[in-house]
């Protein structure tokens, strides 16, 4: 009897260390996992831990460059390539995902961002406008394409959740962020406008998460990233939020605990966004 009780206790505690079943029975699509540095990668691991089933997707080129198949194996996930800027590929993605998962979706993560101008190191006052339009399409307008495709296919269950990742440069000036600032401003506007439409139509909620500077493959490619990361750490009362912590926050937004949260740009940055100046930063100016 005592041994049986101990085994039950041990099993329960082991289960608690593995997850809390916050997403048990839920199905989704995760855009943007490239490698283990990706926030989308961390979200996938956490979603699997919390009991979700999902499809992983990225462009065919990104799938060849990254290590997403390792993630898929670890999470028992299906990989379906798609270009988030091409509506026809998104239509195929949603159709094939609901088939693979055996039903409609409960969550979608949009973790997508790329600027050809930044990659080519074009300064903001000397942009290539074809590149600029590409930045807007990939990093902002693509969210509208995802949402519109999902709505037209009725692919997301009532009280489902769509989360898009963004950055505070959409609202404040960060010179080295370039034209990505405009792209993320577009994305955040889509969150509000389409969030209203999707809420009325299907009770689906749409939010963006404005994350701290994070050492991802994309983030660390921004000029002066190391110095800015240290500055943000000093400015934030709680310090920078890690990729793992961002993943935990996204899981909470996918869960049923946040069913009435929608059309919001949610800052997950340790307090950086509302701190004018910190003592740590002031101390750095003292002689």
Structure, described:
By secondary structure, this protein is α/β, with parallel strands linked by helices. It has one domain: 3-Layer(aba) Sandwich (Rossmann fold). The chain contains 11 helices and 7 strands. Strands 3-2-1-4-5-6-7 form a 7-stranded parallel beta sheet, with helices on both faces. Helix 2 (39-49) links the parallel strand 1 (27-31) and strand 2 (53-57). The termini are far apart. 43% of the residues are buried.
Question: How do you describe this structure in short?
Answer:
The chain has 287 residues and is of the alpha/beta class. It has helices at residues 2-18, 39-49, 60-65, 68-75, 87-101, 116-119, 129-152, 180-202, 225-235, 243-254, 279-283; strands at 27-31, 53-57, 78-79, 105-110, 156-166, 205-211, 265-268.
Instruction: Examine the coordinates and then state which fold CATH places here, giving the name of the CATH topology.
Output: Rossmann fold
Report, as a whole number of angstroms, the end-to-end distance: 69 Å
Computed Rg: 20 Å
- Unreliable spans are none
Structural class by SSE content: alpha/beta
